[in-house]
Each structure stands twice: as C-alpha cells, then as structure tokens.
Design a protein that fits this description.
hydrogenase (acceptor) activity, Ni-dep_hyd_lsu_Ni_BS, metal-binding, 1 helix, alpha+beta, 45 residues, nickel
C-alpha cells in the first residue's frame, strides 16, 4: 500500500490504515520491504 512507517518495528500507521477496511485484518498482518523481505512480524495476544 506504500504506507510510510516512522518506526518499522512498531507499525502503528499500517494498523490504522487496515482498521479502516476491517478491524480484524490488523491482527494478521506482515510488513514487508520493496523486495518482499519481512521487516517485522506483529503478534497480538
């Protein structure tokens, strides 16, 4: 989606974007770089 992250290992910006579409999607999101490499994995408990 091209969302810029201020702190990549705390991706609050993308959570807000995803919540606008579906509040459940943010709990199953992977953040990847332009080359498809995973930057951070967020686990919600």
């Amino acid at each position: 989606m091209g969302t810029k992250l201020a702190v990549p290992d705390q991706p609050l910006e993308i959570l807000r974007t995803l919540h606008s579409f579906d509040p459940c999607l943010a709990c199953s999101t992977h953040v990847i770089d332009n080359h498809g490499g995973e930057l951070v994995r967020v686990q919600v408990r």
